Amino acid sequence: MKRRSLPVAAALVATASLLLTACGSGDDKASDNDKIAGADQGSATPSASASASGAPAEDKPDGVDVSLPKDVDFVFDWAKPKEKNEAAAMDDAANFLRAIYQGVDRHTTKNAAVSTYATGGGLKYATTQINAYIDGGWTVTGTRRHYDATTRSAANGESVEVAFCSDSTKFYAKETKTGKVLKTEPSIVDFDYYKIIMVKYPTGADLWQASKVYVEEKAAKCQ
């Protein structure tokens, strides 16, 4: 989800801008003092069917394939919190990001990973990201690093905010038809700061879904 990976052409500006648009439920970007969304966030029913991709077992948490192609590497350089729910929410926030780019690679929003790890505004965000790449005729390649993560729980224990930085200096768009990698020089555009509101799936399963996504673009604090 970075603008620098896309062609710099006037005709593509509108599409490219979608790749860094936060789609929460009409809310502005969260500040450090924003309250965490609670159990009022509806949860979509996740698909229990795993994709028959032959992915290794560790790529199938909750029985759902979140594997990425061999030329895409998502690095999560963060320590898990000791609190059980926050650790689980952090894991599934990572799975949410993997699900988005699995959809980008497979050119579909209708994959089990997206419906499992996203709901509400998170599902809208994931769909927007995937469709922008599909419409532009792009997929992705390279390494994206995620780091400086923090978590905080709502008082009712039903939601957790997972915040972190991302570094996309080695993460690029790639033309689907030609395989051409669209590289540019590293810049502040490659650094984003995320806040993802994860809500607990109501059936008692140890599953957390992204319900809102806020993105601070060109985040100097992440450099």
**Average pLDDT reading:** 79
Number-wise, the strands total 6
Q: Secondary-structure element sequence? A: HEHHHEEEEE
End-to-end separation: 17 Å
Tell me the overall shape.
globular
**Stretches where pLDDT falls below 50 for ≥5 residues?**
1-58
Q: What fraction of residues sit in β-strands? A: 25-35%
**Rounded Rg:** 16 Å
What descriptors fit this protein?
alpha+beta; 23% helix; 223 residues; single chain; 6 strands; 6-stranded mixed β-sheet
Task: Please describe what this structure looks like.
- It is a single chain.
- The chain has helices at 13-18, 84-106, 112-117, 120-136; strands at residues 72-77, 138-153, 159-175, 181-182, 191-200, 208-216.
- Strands 1, 2, 3, 4, 5 and 6 form a 6-stranded mixed beta sheet that branches.
- The chain is of the alpha+beta class and 223 residues long.
- Residues 1-58 have low confidence and may be disordered.
- It contains 4 helices and 6 strands; from the N terminus they run αβαααβββββ.
- The chain starts with 12 loop residues before the first helix and ends in a 7-residue tail after the last strand.
